[in-house]
Write a structure and sequence with these properties.
The protein has a domain of about 180 residues: 3-Layer(bba) Sandwich (FAD/NAD(P)-binding domain), CATH 3.50.50.60. Helix content is about 35%, strand content about 30%. The strands form three sheets. Strands 1, 2, 8, 9, 10, 11, 18 and 19 form an eight-stranded mixed β-sheet that branches. Strands 5, 6, 12, 13, 14, 15, 16 and 17 form an eight-stranded mixed β-sheet that branches. A three-stranded antiparallel β-sheet has the order 3-7-4. Strand 1, helix 1 and strand 2 form a beta-alpha-beta unit. Helix 1 packs parallel to helix 8 and helix 8 runs antiparallel to helix 9. It is globular. The protein starts with a strand and ends in a 16-residue tail after the last helix. The relative contact order is 0.19.
Length: about 425
């Protein structure tokens, strides 16, 4: 099988599929290579729900920029709306009993309909898959890639079956352990956080009213409860490794009882949903030394992996796709889609947002990981200070909603 396309996308997650749809709708021919046949990128929480009506353990808090992209590629309206929950407000709390800190954001203050929307991985990917079935110009293949070669005229992906894919541009959307990134000889800075994200879902005694809650603690990590449709919430607990192992050894009911310390006043008693499956996902920071190489552009987790405390992993990926689609569309008739100057512009456009997100998430994780008394007092006072500065709050909300560089936002499940 010898294929010729304008774009070859390696990766079968939501970011890669969105890129394929976007390029195809812009008139490009696209070959989408299933990343699962190339590299192991799937999260252990990806397929943890056994029944079609069960709630995914992997959910995303999609901001308005992601909403806009998905709407433009005709995917948003294909989602099962009954399983999408708007986030109308968020409350972030500190961990000092004597100097309690809190900052709150709401859609009314931001003058928007919702701060974000909680969408299940399955719901999102089913909508993308349906759209791809009807997308002219997209060819999907499952094949193991052996090597990637680039030259002045394009790139060639050699496949294990003896075939190859030739393209002007290769888009690496194949996750944190990116095969494309490795083939392009792009190095990374890697640091494990010695934390695991404990994820599961609960029913709540009291209505959540569209509020996302987050608690920063030094001893137990960062706890977040995200609103699902109905009286349901999705847990992401970024717990230190030792605590994470303890939480995994306990029942979901015991975990619900632990969470009562944080949420009893707001949500009442919690009850595990379904079979009460609890999963753990190791957390790390991955910062590639570049997001482009000759004929190659990285998007999504191939381009950046950040701590999930800011809820921007998937949003960063969709922002990558948005920027790449735009710069390729604006390249000019005399340049092809993989031209060095086109890719350099993409890298420049994404540099600030990615860097700020790395600094913000890593800095906040370090700040709240220490139990040093003066610092604990200072950070809780800082939360209150932010809460009382409307101008700063508006900037933070704007960043989180994708209007400019990203900053503090709500949690999402780690994913592609």
């Amino acid at each position: 099988m010898n294929l010729q396309s304008d774009i070859c996308i390696i990766g079968n997650g939501a970011v890669g599929k969105a890129a394929a749809l976007g390029f195809a709708q812009a008139g490009a021919s696209v070959t989408l290579v299933d990343a699962q046949a190339v590299a192991t990128t799937a999260s252990p929480a990806a397929s943890a729900t056994p029944a079609d009506d069960a709630w995914d353990l992997r959910v995303y808090a999609l901001n308005p920029l992601a909403h806009g992209l998905l709407s433009r590629i005709k995917v948003w309206d294909a989602l099962d709306a009954s399983r999408v929950a708007p986030v109308d407000a968020m409350v972030v709390k500190g961990d000092d009993a004597r100097y309690p800190g809190q900052v709150a954001f709401d859609a009314y203050g931001a003058r928007v309909g919702a701060l974000a929307w909680i969408v299940e991985d399955r719901n999102l990917n089913q909508a993308l898959d349906t759209a791809l079935k009807f997308a002219s110009g997209v060819r999907r293949i499952q094949a193991r890639a052996l090597s990637m070669l680039t030259d002045a005229n394009g790139a060639e992906i050699r496949l294990a079956d003896g075939g190859n894919v030739r393209a002007k541009l290769v888009v690496g959307a194949d996750g944190a352990q990116s095969w494309v990134r490795s083939q392009a000889d792009i190095g990374i800075d890697y640091r494990p956080y010695a934390q695991k994200a404990i994820v599961t879902n609960f029913a709540t005694e009291l209505p959540h009213r569209g509020v996302a809650y987050q608690w920063f603690t030094a001893a137990e990590g960062i706890v977040a409860l995200l609103p699902l449709a109905g009286n349901r919430v999705s847990l992401v607990w970024s717990a230190p490794d030792d605590l994470a192992e303890t939480l995994l050894s306990e029942s979901a009911q015991a975990l619900a009882a632990r969470l009562g310390t944080y949420c009893a006043d707001s949500l009442g008693a919690l009850q595990p949903l379904g079979e009460g499956v609890v999963k753990a996902i190791p957390l790390s920071l991955i910062h590639p030394h570049a997001i482009v190489a000759p004929r190659v552009a990285l998007v999504g987790d191939a381009a950046h992996v950040v701590h999930p405390l800011a809820g921007q992993g998937m949003n960063l990926g969709f922002a990558d796709v948005e920027a790449l689609l735009r710069v390729v569309d604006e390249r000019g008739a005399h340049r092809d889609r993989g031209d060095t100057r086109v890719l350099s512009r993409y890298a420049r456009e994404r540099k600030e947002d990615i860097l700020l997100m790395h600094l913000a998430t890593d800095g906040l994780q370090r700040l709240f990981a220490t139990d040093f008394e003066p610092l604990r007092i200072a950070r809780n006072i800082g939360l209150n200070l932010v809460n009382n500065l409307p101008g700063l709050k508006r900037r933070l909300i704007g960043h989180a909603m994708g209007k400019s560089s990203p900053a503090l936002h709500i949690i999402q499940r780690p994913g592609k």
